[in-house]
């Protein structure tokens, strides 16, 4: 099914539609259509357009896009190489398209992006109370490192309804350039 997917890299002009996609995948009623919702854990938005523009401005980093027929935005994933590891964040798949292979397509693309930038490992953080999401990433070859990070306190990324911690997951990247 992934043959219909096309990979692209976001530009500043994509920020408005990316902001809508990410927020629809993580928060609000529309996110409840999919299994990646955080609406039961956090109030508010996942990201604003300004925050997305800041991410797009990071040198070497890229927001990878999965496009469908007619350039429909199906999903996105942030990849930021640094010190031999590529940090992956904010995987977002349109709620109606979750379970169709978009997430796996973007994970592979982001890992390839890391390899192209000389990275030997991939790293991400996941909210600790998301066992279904952690299990998904473990099926993709990621493992928990035992490390944790505090959940961001900036309300522009959401307001937790309970104390939250981020687990650090990593995966070695074979065949790094």
From TrEMBL:
GO terms for molecular function: acyltransferase activity. Pfam families: Acetyltransf_1. Its EC number is 2.3.-.-. SUPFAM superfamilies: Acyl-CoA N-acyltransferases (Nat) (SSF55729). Residues 5-174 form the N-acetyltransferase domain. The keyword Calcium does not apply. It is an enzyme of class 2 (transferase). Keywords: Acyltransferase, Transferase. This is GNAT family N-acetyltransferase. It comes from Hymenobacter humi.
